[in-house]
Amino acid sequence: MSQTLDQSPSSSDPLRRRRIIADHDFHPWIRAEHLDDCFLFWLPVGGFPITHDEKKWVTEFLNHLALLLDQHRDLRCEIFMQYKCVGGDIANDFMKYRRKSFALMGLGRRPGASITALPTSEQLQDIVKNNKSFEIEEWVGDYSFWFIAKQPERQRELFLGLGGMTTIFLPPDPKTKAPPLPFTPALRAAHPAFQKFDVDATHEATYAMSDAFLDKSKALFGVGLEEEVQYEGLAFILPLLDSGHFFAAVPEQRAQWFDLFNVYVNESKTDRGIVLAFRESYDTILLEVLESMRSEGLTFPGDRR
To answer: What is the pTM of this model?
Structure first.
């Protein structure tokens, strides 16, 4: 992706305002060229896992972005983590956190990809007989966990920068708002259930399962998978999008993606960086976030401007 002095959509339509913005205003994000129907940005990193200083800046960026999108556009933040990226030393931390955070598993899908099939007995025998290395990633689908518990700061602290986190911003869904539990402080303090379990988190997770995102994501991104055995059991299907997917798609396809989410942020190993995309005029919010961070002395590592 390359830098560009570009024009935003036309002001005659709320979604197509025309605004000439120098690309350095978005620094360190680099804006893509030749995409008039959406905004696409790329933040290059040294690799995954990202460095401590890169993680610190990206964490602050997402904190600032989530705050302004909530305040000005009433958008909520939802965080997903790819299963393949939480192996090794991170696996234990992930499993411990998952038990407390009510993470729901679904499928992460790149455009047009099929569900990875499990190895047959013949393939397993061939691996053993010929002493071939068995790379589990080759046989496991791109499953993703949705953190139903709304703890974005903690989730970024634990898992941001590993190359598998996707953050989307959605409109509120009234069906997911859990009513207050009718328990007095005295009962909470005395009843053993409240000492052993996070009753409130369980209650909130139950209502989160009614989120319209679940069925809508399958309808939009599960096309072609309907006859797969696993399809019915999938709670959701999250698109895993690199910059190349945006360039390769036709405008109608990109519009369909933004029917599910308003703002999309994805750690992309293919791009060796982070992809940020949105269709509507959130560029002013992005500029406000970056200007606020600069005023706080928060600069991206290696930035000598």
So the answer is: 0.85
